[in-house]
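ok so I'm stuck.
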Amino acid sequence: MIYLRSFRLSDYTDRNPNIYPDHVFKHLAGEVLLFDRITVLYGNNGSGKSSLLNVISNKLGISGAERMTSHGHSFYAQRFLDLSSYQFGEDEQGHEIRQLPEGSRYMKSEDILYEIKKIQQSSVLREGITYEQISKGMSKAQAAQDETTYAFKEKLDNIQFSQEKYSNGETSMQFFEEYLLPGQLYLLDEPETSLSPTNQIRMAEQINELARHFDSQFIIATHSPFVLGTLHAKIYNLDATPLQTAEWYELDNAQFFYRFFNKHKQLFE
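replied:
not stuck anymore, here's the structure
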């Protein structure tokens, strides 16, 4: 299912070079991205791939979007959002979708790392549960009251059990298995964080399965060759001007790995 068909970036760039996000995307001004079931935003540090995910999530108004400001003000970011536009996909009857699935969300790499930390470090377990509840709409007073319940204690015990059972990579895989559900739009920022190459491939295969068979759509920012080479995805190279798609093996990171291992190939023979 294609929930989000396209996104057009603002074609206006402020003359002040310090205005965010205008100058992050000055090389992409007015560009239109057409999304597939899985679309990858590839680019090296500073290419704007994480910022682009946040721009899209703010424009769509989905969970996980971070407030955008420039010099402490939201005017410039809001102007950029107002001048950007998107188009939804179509349902099975060919009618344009009117709204995104309710569980659609933007997951930042920091969110994933926080979940791992919450599970693994007993000193932040209570804080982690409270953070989760407040992020889902519970007030601080309600969260404080909830800490006195049996359900809270049971959840705390379960997390402490997970702390003893899972490594970083295993915890990340557990996180994705619990949070990536059928029939949603997910914007994922570097989901390979803390994953070994083997688990990066496992995670990418899980995403392929959800997109192909369970009506989920993914827009993913990554530069991992293992993820890039496993996903059945359209790949936008944000390092290229003008914006263009590419095959995963053409990208700088994949080429770097190829040259490195080719240089040492005699060690593997």
